[in-house]
Amino acid sequence: MAIIWNNLAVLVVTVSVLLATNALIKIWSLIKQRRQNESDLSVFPCPPRHWLFGHEHLGLRKGKGIQMMFEFTKNYSHYFQIWIGPFRALLFCVHPDTVKTILATPEPKDPLAYGRLSEWLGDGLLISSGAKWKRNRRLLTPSFHFEVLKPYIKLYNECAQKMLTKWSHHSSDTPMEMFDCVSLMTLDTLLNCIFGINSSCQERGDDNTVTYVKAVRNLSQLFVERMAAFYLPSFVFLHLTPRGRKYTHNLKVLHNFTRSIIQQKKRLRAEGSSIKKEYVDFLEMLLDARDDDGVGLSDQEIQDEVDIFMFEGHDTTASAISWCLYNLARYPDYQYKCRDEIDEMMVVKDNDEIEWNDLQCMPETTMFIKESLRMNPPVPATSRQLTSPMTFPDGKVAPVGSIVVVAVNALHHNSHVWENPDIFDPMRFSSENSKKRSPHAFVPFAAGARNCIGQNFAMNEIKVVIGRVLHQFELYVDDSCPFPQPKNTLVLKADPGIFIKFKQRKLKI
Prior knowledge:
This protein has helices at residues 2-40, 65-75, 96-103, 111-121, 130-140, 146-149, 152-168, 178-193, 208-228, 235-238, 242-271, 282-288, 299-330, 332-346, 363-375, 408-412, 431-435, 455-472; strands at residues 79-84, 88-93, 176-177, 382-385, 390-391, 397-398, 403-406, 473-477, 485-488, 492-495, 499-504. By secondary structure, it is an alpha+beta fold. The longest helix is centred in the N-terminal third of the chain and has 39 residues, at 2-40.
């Protein structure tokens, strides 16, 4: 027995020494990484930071990250360093000149941020790089040609009308939280336009699509918490925690939901029983896509693209529409001006639908939407990792391996770029004023090679929904509800929510 205990003691000591040695090696590696980051980015300004927490103590994890970025941008007009904890350094670009430099390249996304996101969204267009990204981008681009998008307008109208019908039964004295109902509407639109499935998710409160929307929100919040807190355990160990189990459960919900859509589509195609429609849905085009050698997308690639568009196609658009509705309620003069434009356009129609040709006849409403996207961009930031040195216009160089962040929200509120950036003014986007400004001052859908492939799909849907709302309802801010504070998750949300009142109009017949 003594021998056994002695051997066990030796084993425990050996394991302890190995673990301690490994920890010391890891710590030394991180210290070297910190010194390297400080050296690599030494030419770029860095706001004062804590030796351990970096810039986190200034508000990154307390819901004050947006305001912190705005304050930094006032002092550092083009770029600045942000440290997440003691070891991870990011270079934030907040000026059109520096933003253009990074967006003009096809550099891959930040592997740490987007690598963790890949567990959710796979290796599709959002995350992939190199030859795979180029091939898949080429295969998917025809799916967003205007001739493909044109028939979707009818479905935008139908899904918007379902939401407005629900609104008509809601008391005009009671405020409603916008993001919940708008998320279901954009998801309904997506399932119809992109996957050819009529889910009826807006009519049935217990539909599994409601569970899907909640899963997206849960995963978004978990991901942001993980990225903002350097000391949380890795995702390997995270799965053993309550937070990790919640993450795994919601991930399963998402993947099962999208996988079932793909299987249903394949089954219908195999049976030859696909319903003949006036449009070709996105999944059909994914299944039919072929490169020059006749090779199509694998099942996994289709799954990845489906997961990405299920997320980007409804959550980001829901954010854009929700904030736009709030801004209409908050600025009644602009609301009336946009409504007059819509009413004038509708007066010659025999129905309430916004049609394809109408999208070019809404200049006031379009300027309003763009100003709302400037003030509240759905995707607050995107990050890249440099595979080659990057030289900015002032001659400063970011070396290979640097993580460069396009801080869209900070760029859109940069007082060195926009006059009185906190003032809501749609006239910024008049033809005359737009010509005076760099096109890279306004990038809600990014720009360059890796811009949002679905931006026209999104803008068309936003225009239709906003036009339909303006024609049928008057919107009001409820002073009893707290002011919505922009909240950075993967998509810009509001804390505690976006609440507005609306009153149905008595339309002249």
